Amino acid sequence: MTTHADSLKTTTPTLAQLTTIGVGGAVGRFIEPQSEEEFIAAVRDADAAGSPLLVIGGGSNLLIADEPFHGVVVRDKRQGISVLDDDAHAGANASVVAIVAQAGVNWDDFVDFCVVSGFSGVEGLSGVPGSVGASVVQNIGAYGQEVASTVSSVRIFDRESGSIRQLDRDDMRFGYRSSALKSSMYSAPAVPSGDYFPTPRYVVLSVTFALRRNGTDEVAFGQLAKALGVAVGERMPIADIRRAVLKVRAAKGMLEDPGRYLLPLMRGCKNFHIVADALSANSLASREQPANMNDEAGSQPNLNRHSCGSFFMNPILTKAQAEKLPPDAPRFDATLPDGEPGVKTSAAWLIDHAGFHKGYKVRPDAKAGLSTLHTLALTNRGGAKASDVAELARAIQNGVEAKFGIRLVPEPVVVGMDLR
Ligand SMILES: Cc1cc2nc3c(=O)[nH]c(=O)nc-3n(C[C@H](O)[C@H](O)[C@H](O)COP(=O)(O)OP(=O)(O)OC[C@H]3O[C@@H](n4cnc5c(N)ncnc54)[C@H](O)[C@@H]3O)c2cc1C
Q: How do residues 359-370 score in pLDDT, each as one tens digit?
């Protein structure tokens, strides 16, 4: 019998082509729904058939094994953003605007739309790769902002009950790189739950954001304030903040390679004008780094961008665990999963102080290595397999654990490999 999803089937790519780190095996079936009904039908059909299901966005937070993924990969192609009627949604607070973005919308396109429209609250998250749908799964954060602080509700398809529901911000149980959606995939850190992995129980259909319409925002992060030449807490036009964030991220290799959007497979996944701007900024940046041209990253600067971003979460420790850290280890107030006060330390600091410096590889000829610009990014140096990235990740986990007694937990969703 031909299902609704069959009619939407397109050519089958590999996961290496669908992910920013560029590793991963063949895909069983690949479906690109163009409407909410088609999206839900694709999810329902996969679940009804008992097929493993991967709802994928930009593939920027996924590390997937080299073996074929014998299941269905669904990528929402919708790119709709709408500003809701002011009177109905702003209520007494006319300075707030409600915006709905469909799950498939490219996250940075959404930020660009908000900044151009003068809506503040997400500009610090400029340049984070991926989709609006996934942004709420791991509660993306950068430069003093987290998506959680601007989300008012999330429209989801509940795979368990088969119903469409609205989750309010409290229902989302946002935390540091976590949410109720992400929790539905795990029974313990890095341990997949049987039922819902690698896609959460709740599939995001669209997100409603509440942003301010003042066109300026506070600069909430020291490094950003420095780039802008202002003090932390000072207000700046959000367009300036976005430009500075993109520049700081480019200097750390923490933007994705815009060249991927030139692939036929990626067409329509991101606003062409923003891709063109990113391509020209990228080639300008490589021309501006002649001093590095003798090293691997200098001659091929995009290698540092073939990653999942930060690979390990910053550990949140009990106070007793934190006391065992060296005195100079970073310490920030945080909340433990059980709600008790804890201490967050820096994964990058632990990695570096365990002897894994920028550019580290397990062997000189290894095809995966730490970014030469950022200690937390595990990168594909060209031709790496998922197993190469996993080998590097384990070496770092083991080294950090041996030195500090802390087991680092991967931030990306790791499929088909065990990196606990
Ligand atoms: C260079 C680089 C820099 C980065 N910088 C940051 C950063 O500063 N801060 C940060 O927080 N993250 C960062 N990341 C990580 C990544 O960009 C985010 O986690 C992003 O939200 C992932 O989005 P995606 O669409 O690519 O998700 P994918 O990788 O495609 O999927 C990740 C997970 O989300 C699920 N998912 C995707 N769409 C949906 C949906 N519609 N409904 C339910 N589940 C869904 C998938 O099933 C999967 O479990 C970075 C990554 C890279 C490569």
A: 999 999 999 999
Instruction: Say if residues 100 and 208 touch (Cβ distance below 8 Å).
Output: yes
pLDDT at 290: 43
Which of 56, 76, 202 maximizes ligand 1 atoms within 8 Å of its Cβ, making it the mutation to test the pocket?
56
Residue 299 has pLDDT above 80, yes or no: no
Residues with CB under 6 A from ligand 1: 20, 54-62, 76, 103, 128-131, 133-135, 137-138, 140-142, 181, 198-200, 203-204, 254-256, 305, 307-309, 413
Compute, in degrees rounded to 10, the torsion defined by CA atoms 41, 43, 48, 53: 150
Longest dimension (CA), the chain: 65
27 touches 10 (CB < 8 A): no
Give whole-number Cα distances, 338 to 316, 318, 320, in Å.
11, 11, 15
411: annotated active-site residue: yes
Choose the weakest-confidence range: 31-45, 86-100, 173-187, 234-248.
Answer: 86-100
Q: Which among 346, 120, 80 has a CA at the least distance from the CA of 220?
A: 120
C-alpha to C-alpha distance for 380 and 388, rounded to whole angstroms: 9
* Domains of the chain, earliest start first: 5-75 (3.30.43.10), 81-248 (3.30.465.10), 258-298 (no CATH), 306-415 (3.90.78.10)
**89: CB partners within 8 A, 6+ apart:** 97, 98
Of residues 60, 120, 178, 310, which has the active-site annotation? 310
Q: Which of 230, 208, 204, 207 has the alpha carbon at shortest distance from 219? A: 230
Residue 291: pLDDT over 50? no
Sign of torsion over alpha carbons 320, 323, 329, 335: positive
CB 354 within 8 A of CB 400: yes
